[in-house]
Amino acid sequence: MKNQIPTATALMNPGCNQCSLSKLCIPIAVNSEDIDRLDEIISRGRVLERGERIFEQDAPFTSCYAVRSGAVKTYTLSSDGEEQVTGFYLPGEVIGLDSIHMNQYSGTATALERTRVCEIPLGQLDEIADEIPGLQHHFMHLMSQEIRDSRQLTLLLSKKTAEERIASLLLSLSSRFSRRRLSGTEYRLPMPRSDIGNFLGLAVETISRVLTRFQNQGLVKVRGRDVEILSLEGLKGLLSHETECKRTSA
Amino acid sequence: MKNQIPTATALMNPGCNQCSLSKLCIPIAVNSEDIDRLDEIISRGRVLERGERIFEQDAPFTSCYAVRSGAVKTYTLSSDGEEQVTGFYLPGEVIGLDSIHMNQYSGTATALERTRVCEIPLGQLDEIADEIPGLQHHFMHLMSQEIRDSRQLTLLLSKKTAEERIASLLLSLSSRFSRRRLSGTEYRLPMPRSDIGNFLGLAVETISRVLTRFQNQGLVKVRGRDVEILSLEGLKGLLSHETECKRTSA
DNA sequence: CGTACAGTTGAGGAGATTCAATCATCGTGG
DNA sequence: CCACGATGATTGAATCTCCTCAACTGTACG
Question: Counting beta carbons within 10 angstroms of the beta carbon of residue B81, is it exposed (0 to 12), middle (13 to 18) or buried (19 or more)?
């Protein structure tokens, strides 16, 4: 019966083999046999409503999570209680990497909208790491990526203007939606302006102002959270233009 | 003869067993047998003068490096050619973690002063990772740490004032010198103001101004690169004070 | 239909940057 | 040994970007 009539949850949540995101989430060159083994330790289909937490800061670390659908933000609470948004995660992306082999989660992850995640318990992953040698490598790769993204963000925050930061975010989202074969020029922001501002180190008012400025320049069309990028080139031009301007004026 | 008369370099560069930094650099619970094995793959004692490069951005990744003495800065060159300092590394700290299991180095590392490093070739490390299981974990741990540090920096850059950033750097250096049993209240900055400014996202002039302000407040005594911290508490107080001010004025 | 929340817009102000000049430090060569 | 240039560091004045405060608009939802 197990073979003939899949349960409802199994239908909703096929294994990694069937998952359309597997190329993004675990894109290691493992044979299907290994993927099957992976399937055994990954629990799929946890559904979260907006605002629900996937894991909480300082809770004992157990698992990373792959986003299947929806969107997630991660943030840390500093000692004085202020929130710092550390990242937004779309389907196919993995959360909790920065807590691997630490005792506890370094931040909190909450769903920005209705979200499904796959849990990847890392205690067990260690055990089978020997059997699937590529896996440990892959996670190190993901962690390297995470460090680089963070460095990228650091550069953004330390040297770039409000316009550059926002253009950069719009483009980042664009390319990440594209990777999922969704439109890279027309999408809906999963997060409120306040989260964007927190993430980019800008006031919400500044987000608004810059977005309308972009709109007046014909770069984008924005209505609330709906974004349509009219000129990818124009946005990209903003990123590197800054230095050119300085050079020409100097 | 090899056994009886150690070479000069061997005297200068004892193995991990003898290294006073081993507790910081590779503080894994490995038995001395494992450390010996580690010794075999780590080449010690490469000496670099100020300005010399340890590795270069986009060069094929081969090794991480542990700083033995001196100081190192890492930076990336963005597409438009501007430099972004991504970190400072003191003895006992490991460079290149963000490039593990990537094809190439994500940035350049250069010596800020005369510096000795140990090379940790990671191709070979993989091979013996099975024999020393703690090692792979340890590197993941270091990488997690790196991500967190980067997040911390992100918070610093996106939400903190110039005073907070600089106080934070002074305190970070203080605690890192302390870990090495050096004075945490009196040390010499290994980097010029321009690197500090680049790292913290501030103009050099701002660094100067804030440092003299600190000095006038009796928090530190600064003469060029020599720093004496007169009130650790005072500096720490600056870090969380910001929000309190806002709250009281609101 | 009104309340709550998210987003936009405007005016004023604070903090950091930029530009420019000065001062200090250090290694170099006369 | 000292003068010299070069680089690094400091200080001042003007400017600018972004923040804060405030009012207002739109939208979702009871």
Answer: exposed
Q: What is the pLDDT of residue B178?
A: 93
Spatial contact of B137 and A101, defined as CB atoms under 8 Å apart? yes
Q: Which fold has domain B160-249?
A: Arc Repressor Mutant, subunit A (1.10.10)
At A53-97, the pLDDT tens digits run 999 999 999 999 999 899 999 999 987 778 899 999 999 899 998
Q: What is the pLDDT of residue B42?
A: 75
Task: Select the CATH number that applies to the domain covering B8-157 from these four: 3.40.50.300, 3.30.565.10, 2.60.120.10, 2.60.40.1120.
Answer: 2.60.120.10
Is pLDDT of A159 > 50? yes
- Band (pLDDT 50/70/90 cuts) for residue B136 is confident
Interface touch B201/A76, C-beta < 8 Å: no
CATH architecture, domain defined by A8-155: Sandwich (2.60)
Q: Does B30 contact chain A (CB < 8 Å)?
A: no
SS3 at position A8: helix
Q: Residue B48 has which token pair?
A: 């670099």
- Residue A119: strand pairing partners: A43, A65
pTM for the structure as a whole: 0.86
List chain C nucleotides near protein: any atom < 7 Å from a Cβ: 6-11, 15-20, 24-26
Contacts of A101 in chain B (CB under 8 A): 137, 140-141, 144
Domain ranges of chain B: 8-157, 160-249
